[in-house]
Write a structure and sequence with these properties.
CATH superfamily: 2-enoyl-CoA Hydratase, Chain A, domain 1
Strand content: 5-15%
Distance between the termini: 47 Å
Shape: globular
Order of helices and strands: EEHEHHEEHEEHHEHEHHH
Number of helices: 10
Radius of gyration: 18 Å
CATH topology: 2-enoyl-CoA Hydratase, Chain A, domain 1
CATH class: Alpha Beta
Largest sheet: 6 strands, mixed
Length: about 260
């Protein structure tokens, strides 16, 4: 049934499997992937046979996060900037509004927006060496596209501040201890089978009961998002126009230490 360019979608035995499929770009979430994820998640309302989702990825990394190559286009074109804001808002809200549980197979690193997508889901099966981080501040941006919502909900405010204000990563074993990861497996190859096993378990249960419980639990996060998300997204948009974000991207590409001026 796959009709997308940057993701793969298959449905079998009440389980929808969505696979990020830009391995050469470390599954960075560009505008197209944003839109395709929103589209497939929005389609769930018309797919009553789907009772659970497995979210997986291809290649070495789960997702490197947002695509930094789009920074210059965003700064140069107000329409691109508006689209970026709107799809970012839609993606997180659509994840939080999904009516069925989502189980993540975290075989490799997830950074920035990639980590926030993971933490907006309902169970995370992670390989021990996989890492999570929200690197927005390192890239010169406010952690606006969900980090200020999902990290505190998962690990508590103080630990969330520790990681969101530094961009430091947390490995899967520490993430398991802090509440960011629900299940640990030994190798990257074990993550997808582990996620599929949980998905099959969920799919075997009464769907109305599961879906009502999922929606009730997510109401807490949706209320939190209502308080924080639009504000943090607006602040992120301001930093997208800063000189510091250009310096961050150029320094990364040139493999040098950045010099920030708060401009």
């Amino acid at each position: 049934m796959n009709q997308y360019q940057s993701i793969l979608v298959e449905v079998s035995d009440h389980v929808m499997e969505i696979t990020l499929n830009r391995p050469a770009q470390l599954n960075a979430i560009d505008q197209q992937m944003h839109e395709e994820l929103v589209d497939v998640l929005s389609s769930l309302r018309k797919r009553p046979e789907v009772r659970v989702i497995v979210l997986a990825s291809t290649g070495k990394a789960f997702s490197a996060g947002g695509d930094l190559n789009e920074v210059f286009r965003i700064q140069a074109d107000p329409k691109v900037r508006q689209d970026f804001h709107e799809t970012g808002r839609l993606l997180m809200n659509t994840l939080l509004d999904a009516g069925v549980p989502i189980v993540v197979a975290l075989h490799g690193d997830a950074h920035g927006l990639g980590a926030n997508v993971v933490l907006a889901c309902d169970a995370v099966v992670a390989a021990r060496r996989a890492r999570l981080s929200d690197t927005h501040v390192v890239a010169g941006m406010v952690a606006g596209d969900g980090g200020c919502v999902v990290w505190p909900q998962a690990m508590g405010m103080m630990w969330a501040k520790r990681h969101l204000l530094t961009g430091d990563f947390i490995d899967a074993e520490a993430a398991y201890a802090r509440g960011l990861v629900t299940d640990l497996v030994d190798s990257p190859e074990d993550a997808l089978p582990g996620a599929r096993a949980i998905a099959r378990r969920i799919a075997s249960l009464p769907p109305l009961a599961v879906q009502g419980t999922k929606r009730s639990l997510n109401r807490v996060m949706q209320q939190r998002a209502g308080e924080v998300f639009e504000y943090s997204m607006a602040l992120e948009n301001l930093t997208l126009l800063s000189k510091d974000i250009v310096e961050a991207v150029n320094a990364f590409k040139e493999k040098r230490k950045p010099v920030y001026k708060g401009e």
